[in-house]
């Protein structure tokens, strides 16, 4: 040790600087566990080393005693700081309170601050004080007073307690913490041994402050290599390493300090997980920690990507309640199997073409399957809380409300009704309900619905076809039988009398049969169907229809018509032909027919109308009172078929228009008005000039 004497002052200053540097590095950890205690210990070491260096550099007894007194403050606080740090580091931080620290430091501070400066008055610390030369170094020569031994014994007890705690932690911990504990012991034991050697008189100089530099070096390794302050141990005995569920023990800054194999299995890089913030090592749990503070118990589901598949965990974050614990515990329960089964059923429900609805006992929707969006256009979440009956067509609500009590029974019941889709259209739905109110898993009435709109349309088409077949049967059995009877009777009379006038009646009956057959074929082939409507000029269609009416003496008068109307041109021509033929049949061969437009009305904003109307009027006998002239088979003419106006009504319905029959004020006969005809913008009738493409009137 004699070789160190010339270097002892620089080495003590280096030890002081190293302790201060460790304080700066430790404070960068801010409020992490052990930082304050470590700072306190290093500050005491710096005071001891610095005071000792200045004592050796002074050379004068007065200054040497002054710096010795300063260094003695650090000398007495190092044991206190060492024990306090070890209490925190080994998990007994609840014992580290202001009161505890004050009690531990009371005797050392009293000695350093009171007894040492006033020693000449009582000699309790040093019996004699002087200066002696040890080689090239001037040191204080002194003999100890009675209280010095009391103080030294107390300090040794504090240091011994800290070493025991550190040794227990090192022997009872996993490899990472064992390395930490070994580093702490490697730095502390030499300093303790050096002080014992000096107290026992084995060394002429107290090398303890110098060994504090060695302690700083070793603890620097622990600080940077083994992350001393980042990994303050948390008691491991509160959890079991062999449990099936994964767990991670976290410190109060949510960094991983321990984890079991099940938890390691979910991390991408488990070997480097210790000491990392849990949200960096295990990003899937980030939302869990955003939901509450560190003292809150939180539970949530976590999804972890595992290659092309996913793993699901029921995660629970709790505060460890053991007396020695300062951290949190993250438990991970693997529920992938359960979620796979749930996902399988959910996929079946979501991908099904059927709509699954769950209502409460009052019929209010509590769950709506996503298929509602595909079938009806509604977002499933928007329907929750809506009474099911509010979606039903007003005409069908009574049937649904009457059937709903049956859904409340344990037996399934089916009902067909219309539901309004998100686009405002009505869709036919067939629903079956089953009461599962008593089932704790469901707790509601489950309604399985299937769209049957297309099937209902087929049924309606079939009904219309059957109706036409009934009319055809009536036509064949009744209307065609009459002219056949006339033909048969007239032929018998013509054979007997040879009068040629009977042949004229036969010819008339044959013509009537031809008209009946033509009308029957029209209804059978086309029914109430139109092709793709298009914007067409109505004037040529009216003129063409008039030319095919078959009369030479009748007169048509064209009033102003819209430039275009949206219609199937062939069916529109057929409509006019039947109206013209009806006028000739009832008004005679010299009837006058007028065709014009009925003006629409502008809306409240003054926008020109997009729809208009057409009329066909004649100067014939008019319409009979209280008669449905559009009914199949209705006619007031002996030569009429009763199907002309019926065909007109079918064409109007197929276009979505409306038709009414009234008295023609100007001509005095019948007037048929067709409304709700769509026109292109700017095509409304002028109403004040004839159509330039036709004469004001013309004869057949």
Automatic annotation (TrEMBL):
Annotated keywords: Kinase, Membrane, Phosphoprotein, Transferase, Transmembrane, Transmembrane helix, Two-component regulatory system
Segments forming domain PAS: 341-404
EC code: 2.7.13.3
Stretches for region Disordered: 676-700
Endpoints of the signal sequence: none
InterPro entries, per database record: HATPase_C_sf, HATPase_dom, His_kinase_dom, HisK_dim/P_dom, HisK_dim/P_sf, HisKA_7TM, PAC, PAS
Residue ranges of every copy of the Histidine kinase domain listed in the record: 475-680
Record SUPFAM superfamilies: ATPase domain of HSP90 chaperone/DNA topoisomerase II/histidine kinase (SSF55874), Homodimeric domain of signal transducing histidine kinase (SSF47384), PYP-like sensor domain (PAS domain) (SSF55785)
Domain of life: Archaea
MF terms in GO: phosphorelay sensor kinase activity
This protein's name: histidine kinase
Provenance organism: Halorientalis regularis
Taxonomy of the source species: Archaea, Methanobacteriati, Methanobacteriota, Stenosarchaea group, Halobacteria
């Amino acid at each position: 040790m004699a070789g160190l004497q010339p270097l002892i002052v620089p080495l003590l200053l280096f030890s002081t600087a190293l302790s201060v540097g460790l304080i700066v590095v430790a404070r960068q950890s801010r409020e992490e566990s052990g930082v304050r205690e470590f700072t306190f210990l290093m500050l005491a070491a710096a005071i001891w080393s610095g005071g000792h260096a200045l004592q050796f550099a002074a050379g004068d007894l007065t200054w040497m005693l002054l710096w010795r007194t300063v260094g003695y403050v650090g000398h007495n606080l190092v044991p206190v700081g060492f024990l306090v740090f070890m209490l925190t580091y080994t998990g007994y931080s609840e014992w580290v309170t202001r009161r505890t620290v004050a009690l531990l430091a009371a005797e050392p501070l009293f000695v350093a601050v009171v007894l040492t400066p006033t020693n000449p008055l009582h000699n309790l610390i040093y019996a004699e004080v002087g200066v002696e030369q040890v080689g090239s170094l001037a040191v204080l020569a002194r003999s100890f007073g009675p209280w010095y031994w009391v103080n030294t014994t107390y300090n040794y007890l504090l240091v011994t307690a800290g070493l025991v705690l550190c040794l227990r932690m090192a022997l009872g911990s996993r490899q990472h913490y064992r390395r930490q504990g070994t580093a702490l012991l490697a730095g502390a034991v030499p300093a303790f041994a050096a002080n014992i050697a000096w107290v026992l008189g084995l060394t002429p100089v107290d090398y303890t402050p110098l060994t504090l530099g060695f302690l700083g070096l070793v603890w620097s390794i622990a600080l940077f290599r083994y992350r001393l302050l980042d990994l303050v141990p948390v008691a491991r005995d509160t959890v079991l390493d062999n449990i099936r569920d994964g767990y991670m023990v976290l410190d109060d800054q949510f960094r991983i300090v321990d984890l079991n194999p099940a938890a390691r299995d979910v991390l991408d890089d488990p070997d480097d997980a210790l000491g990392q913030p849990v949200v960096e090592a295990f990003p899937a749990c980030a939302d869990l920690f955003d939901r509450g503070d560190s003292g809150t118990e939180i539970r949530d589901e976590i999804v972890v990507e595992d290659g092309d598949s996913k793993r699901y965990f029921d995660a629970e974050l709790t505060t460890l309640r053991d007396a020695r614990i300062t951290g949190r515990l993250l438990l991970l329960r693997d529920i992938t199997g359960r979620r796979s089964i749930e996902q399988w059923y959910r996929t079946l429900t979501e991908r099904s073409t059927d709509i699954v609805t769950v209502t409460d006992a009052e019929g209010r929707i509590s769950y709506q399957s996503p298929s509602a969006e595909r079938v009806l256009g509604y977002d499933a979440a928007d329907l929750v809380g809506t009474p099911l009956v509010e979606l039903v067509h007003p005409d069908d609500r009574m049937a649904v409300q009457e059937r709903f009590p049956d859904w409340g029974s344990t037996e399934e019941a089916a009902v067909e009704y219309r539901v309004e889709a998100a686009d405002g259209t009505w869709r036919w739905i067939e629903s079956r309900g089953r009461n599962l109110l008593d089932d704790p898993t469901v707790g509601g009435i489950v309604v399985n619905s299937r769209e049957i709109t297309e099937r209902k349309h087929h049924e309606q088409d079939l009904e219309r076809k059957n109706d036409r077949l009934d009319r055809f049967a009536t036509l064949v059995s009744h209307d065609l039988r009459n002219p056949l009877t006339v033909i048969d009777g007239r032929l018998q009379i013509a054979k007997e009398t040879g009068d040629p006038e009977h042949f004229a009646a036969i010819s008339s009956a044959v013509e009537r049969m031809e008209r009946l057959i033509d009308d029957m074929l029209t209804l059978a082939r086309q029914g109430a169907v139109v092709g793709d409507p298009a914007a067409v000029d109505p004037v040529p269609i009216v003129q063409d229809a008039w030319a095919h009416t078959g009369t030479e003496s009748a007169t048509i008068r064209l009033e102003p018509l819209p430039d275009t109307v949206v219609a199937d041109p062939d069916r529109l021509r057929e409509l006019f032909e039947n109206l013209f033929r009806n006028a000739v049949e009832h008004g005679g061969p010299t009837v006058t027919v007028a065709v014009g437009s009925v003006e629409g009305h502008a809306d409240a904003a003054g926008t020109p109308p997009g729809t208009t109307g057409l009329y066909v009027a004649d100067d014939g006998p008019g319409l009979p009172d209280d008669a449905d002239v559009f009914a199949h088979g209705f006619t007031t003419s002996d030569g009429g078929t009763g199907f002309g106006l019926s065909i007109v009504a079918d064409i109007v319905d197929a276009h979505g228009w409306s038709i009414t029959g009234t008295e023609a004020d100007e001509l005095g006969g019948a007037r048929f008005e067709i409304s709700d005809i769509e026109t292109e913008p700017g095509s409304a009738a002028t109403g004040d000039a004839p159509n330039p493409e036709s004469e004001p009137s013309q004869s057949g």
